[in-house]
């Protein structure tokens, strides 16, 4: 049985669905826009990779436009004010790291945590999305693996030098992610998604990324379970 078959049929034109979608749609439009800003910022911090990071950033701008079309298609107006607030804490952390030239922290926030969050959210949304949004989300999520991969490669190449910084950053960022998940839970539920599945997929993706860049299984589990205590 698929996830959608276990739920009540979704009515994309109901008030409940459209109200929840206005906030979810705002979140993904704003999230993609912030991802664009973060990649542009990273392209200045990493002169060797400027062109590649600009290219990744431009993909995020296209994602933002694509999700705008998903809202329009359902005749929903995205709640961008809510979304801007939703990302406040994460944005503060990224900007503060950038202002201190903490490149590894910036990459952990954008290329690992945010991308794993997006991949988990989009993969869970696809089976319950309307046909128009499903197609768009499938093509968006394919791009997000590329963004995650950029972060993994850079952090792996610099692992010994940045390991301690990454551990500290992860401990700071995961509680913010759990808070964001709790905040979005009622709306995610209204559009047919389940918080538990989101958490599971996020942890699988993020844990795999940590191992990929050089953390041992034990270290990876310490980092991911530390985050969970805050949930
Ligand atoms: C990176 O490329 C984009 C970052 C966007 C972050 C999105 C986070 C989503 C949070 C939970 C929303 C659930 C539903 C998503 C459905 C489209
Ligand atoms: Fe994106
Ligand atoms: Fe991305």
UniProtKB/TrEMBL annotation:
Residue numbers binding Fe cation 1: 32, 60, 63
Record has rRNA-binding as a keyword: no
Alphabetized InterPro entries for the sequence: Ald_deCOase, Ferritin-like, Ferritin-like_SF
EC numbers, comma separated: 4.1.99.5
UniProt keyword annotation of Cytoplasm present: no
Top-level division of the source organism's lineage: Bacteria
NCBIfam families linked: Ald_deCOase
Gene3D superfamilies: 1.20.1260.10
Taxonomic lineage: Bacteria, Bacillati, Cyanobacteriota, Cyanophyceae, Oscillatoriophycideae
Catalysis: reaction(s): a long-chain fatty aldehyde + 2 NADPH + O2 + H(+) = a long-chain alkane + formate + 2 NADP(+) + H2O
Binding site for Fe cation 2: 60, 115, 147
GO MF: aldehyde oxygenase (deformylating) activity; transition metal ion binding
CDD domains: Ferritin_like (cd00657)
Entry-linked Pfam families: Ald_deCOase
Protein name, as recorded: Aldehyde decarbonylase
